[in-house]
Amino acid sequence: MPKRKAEAQLKREEDEEQPSDGVEDDDNDKNASEGDDEPDGEGNDEGDSDEGEDSSEGESDDSDSDDDSGPEASSSEVESEDDEEGEAYKEINVQFEFFDPQERDFLGLRALLNTYLDGQQYDCSGLVDAIIKQTAVGTVVKSSEEDDPFAVLTAFNTCQGIAAGSVWLTQLREYLTAGCSDPATREKLSKALSGPGTGLLVSERLINCPPQLAPPLMQMLMEEVDGAAKDEDYPQEEREEFAFKRFLHVTRVYTDPQDEQEGGDEGQAAGGSGAASAPGRDSSLRGKLGDEGKNALIVYVRPEDEYLHQVSSWSFTFPVESRPLAKGDLRPLRAVMCVEARRMREAREMMDMVVGNMMADGGASAVAAGGGNVVAAAAGE
Amino acid sequence: MATRCQFENSNDVGVFAKLTNAYCICALGGAENFYSVFEAELSDHIPVIKSSVAGTRLVGRLTVGNRNGLLLPNTTSDQELTHIRNCLPDEVVVQRIDERLSALGNCIACNDYVALIHPDIDRETEEIVADVLGVEVFRQTVAGNVLVGSYCAFTNQGGLVHPKTSIEDLDELSSLLQIPLVAGTVNRGSDVIGAGLVANDWAAFCGLDTTSTELSVIESVFKLRDAQPMNIINDLRASLIDTMA
């Protein structure tokens, strides 16, 4: 990486020295001054993005020679790409650290979880309070201790412990039950929520969090749950509380309305093989899909959702109110799935294979460096 | 008396309401809860009206006013301006001003005698503020933040400022404003005081998350109920943290 940055920096200086027209002069000057004004890190990143635009990392030599052959033409090409979408191509290195939820995270978590019931009012402070008070299980991802959380993942026992009987749980239960159109699934949902041994996963993340966050988060959660269930230092009730037999996962997924209309040729989503019942009301839209139709159109934004859905014993989705959708937009849905505890490991292993788990080799290291670069494409959202 | 309330699950009461000694403006909300809390407390004494400003519900942050007048940003529509003018008492001068920094509530904090303004506000606006609101105007920052309206809230009786305000700043502001000031938080640790609470000489409203310690401090410094600012030094001392070092 450092070498690449140095090369890019060099290329930038070359560009600046080359003679150029009036127009390119402006571009040159603008880029040069942008590079100067920003602190070093970002200046390098600008250079990086120049390189990034060329096809692949290893071929920097080729592209350099290309550029040399037609200096003015190619430099304007590079710069115009940069100018139009320069912001979108900037890379920022972010370091993610994992912490236990603490009182200082209250306001940040509240901001993350405010829309947990998709715009409906509910006792958000109660939920955040519960997350903070449950010290045995729960993880929060921040870039440093003082910052606001990017992501939170925790598990509550629905009928024992801190969540049982709380206002927010009742509101959540009502919300999910209302969204479930199939009576059989509603039965299962209500049994799961009221019966013992169910862990409700509360998971929320900022949009565009890198997928590499998910495996360590899930791993930590499972380790904490297992630890709490078996640790002899904890009192018996607490151990029972965390001896989950199944997990209820409530999350956000999307479907592509285009796909639905065209009959889903594009195969964008992973099929929900092994997952049960799609909501009845959607079958009319998916008529052309045939057997695959069950959940073939779902687009998962979080990596763990896909694998959990595959191993889930039952699930359902329902649409949520959102802003009016622009042409290419995906329609948001809420998905609820029930995963048996013994199949959790399977799902996690599949996910680790595909996404890669940075924690798996490093043992119990609590710092996962952002090997992902967070693309600051705020505009893209 | 300090009351806790919420606007549609948001604890930032100061965003959706503007409270002065002569009137109160609330945002148009889905549920009537918010408005009725204000009505219950205040309508016996002052008009409580509902309005939008610039088509948004952010009435607290876009407007600034006191007993003498109310200033609205240039994005306010004519209907809104007329509506507000009609509902407010005649003594209150309602004026729409042209200012680049249009979130007036974030840039200006005032009571009936003094105003603090964002250092970058136009000279013209400063004069209008002095004129319409009938106040003495000072360009100041609060704890290094230029958004004075966001990071402090004060009335004729007392004021609350950003928790990280240094003692020297506190003294300076206090002598400018001639009222007791305290550095504190609202809504369970939020440092955006101006967004978190609204207050006038006899009432204050803050979010549901506000802890009882925060509420006691608010009641003390704004001299609500029987509370006195001295309580902060005497009775409440044990539960308050002055500095960490």
From TrEMBL, chain A:
Source taxon at top rank: Eukaryota
Segments crossing the lipid bilayer: none
GO cellular component, one term: nucleus
Coiled coil: none
Bias (Basic and acidic residues): 1-13
Feature: compositional bias, Acidic residues: 14-70
Leader sequence segment: none
Disordered: annotated span: 1-87, 256-289
InterPro entries linked to this entry: BCP1_family
Protein family per UniProt: Belongs to the BCP1 family.
Name under which the protein is recorded: Protein BCCIP homolog
UniProtKB/TrEMBL annotation, chain B:
GO function term, MF aspect, one: translation initiation factor activity
Example of a GO cellular component annotation carried by this entry: nucleolus
Subcellular location: Cytoplasm; Nucleus, Nucleolus
NCBIfam families: eIF-6
Record's subunit section: Monomer. Associates with the 60S ribosomal subunit.
HAMAP family (alphabetical): eIF_6
Gene3D superfamilies in the cross-refs: L-arginine/glycine Amidinotransferase, Chain A
GO biological process: cytosolic ribosome assembly; ribosomal large subunit biogenesis
Pfam families in alphabetical order: eIF-6 (PF01912)
InterPro entries xrefs: eIF6
Its job: Binds to the 60S ribosomal subunit and prevents its association with the 40S ribosomal subunit to form the 80S initiation complex in the cytoplasm. May also be involved in ribosome biogenesis.
Record-stated family: Belongs to the eIF-6 family.
Protein name: Eukaryotic translation initiation factor 6
Keywords: Cytoplasm, Initiation factor, Nucleus, Protein biosynthesis, Ribosome biogenesis
